[in-house]
Amino acid sequence: MGGDLMPFCAWIGDLFSQATKVMVKDKQVLHLRRLVLEQGESRAIAARNSGMCETTARKYMRLGKLPSETVKPRTWRTRKDPFEDVWEEAKDLLETNPNLEVTAHFGQRRYPGKFQSGQLRTLQRHVKCWKAMEGPPKEVYFAQEYKPGDRAQSDFTCMGKLGVTIQGVLFKHKLFHFVLTYSNWQRVMYAVRRASRRYRRNCRMLYRRVEGCRGSIRRIR
Q1: Helix axes 2-20, 43-50, angle to 10 degrees
Q2: Whether this model's pTM surpasses 0.70
Q3: CA 46 from chain center: how many Å?
Q4: Dihedral (C-alpha) 156, 162, 168, 173: value to the nearest 10 degrees?
Q5: pLDDT at 57 over 70
Q6: Which helix (H) or strand (E) element contains residue 221?
Q7: Dihedral pair phi/psi, residue 80, rounded to 5°
């Protein structure tokens, strides 16, 4: 009885797979290969256990590829580009002002009500592609990496232009700013006398304070 039902079940399985057109996944094909190559199952039984019809199983066994490896990228449009008539105008605006919010310009000011929100997202992708291929060059910068205890920075700032007075007398002074570049720990002190002498004094005091916290500084700028 069981042997008579096998062809019928296989036919039902093939019919169901063809009717629903279910996309075969990589794990199904991997399971199919394991059943056929490692466990020695027949192709028909392995196909049913893998959730696909025998024709599909035969196809992937012949190709030797997974479904994801057979998909070709789509290079055509499924619908007409809604910005085909205005894209040249948009490019002229971008060449003049690359930072212009083109979506707001076309969607709210230039052509209010003509484009839907989903279409404006399409315009955003157009602008992103244009900036990558034809837009102005991006600014090049090099990231700076700081290490603990490696570097400190310091500087003096003249404060005379602020016109600070004490009891009516102009207070001519400078501010000494010291910062650890890794932790961003900083200290500001004022200096009245010669900057070089005050600088050495402040540095020695700050060195002692850092060493008191079991730290060290290799370079100072």
Answers
A1: 50
A2: no
A3: 42
A4: 10
A5: yes
A6: none
A7: -70, 140
The pLDDT tens digits for 70-98 are: 877 767 666 777 777 878 888 888 888 88
pLDDT in tens, 125-139: 888 888 888 888 877
* Token pair for 117: 């929100």
Q: Would you list the DSSP string of 124-171?
A: HHHHHHHHHHTSPPPPP-------TTTEEEEEEEE-GGG--EETTEE-
Mean pLDDT of the chain, nearest integer: 76
- The pair of structure tokens assigned to 53 is 């019809």
Would you state the structure tokens that stand for residue 57, as one six-digit string? 């199983």
Tell me the one-letter amino acid at 96. Answer: T
Query: Token pair for residue 213?
Result: 């916290």
Question: What is the DSSP secondary structure assignment for residue 181, as one 8-state letter?
Answer: T
Closest-CA residue to 47 (of 39, 56, 38): 56
The pLDDT of residue 19 is: 42
Strands 174-180 vs 169-170: parallel, antiparallel or unpaired: unpaired
Instruction: State the Cα–Cα distance between residues 78 and 71, nearest whole angstrom.
Output: 17
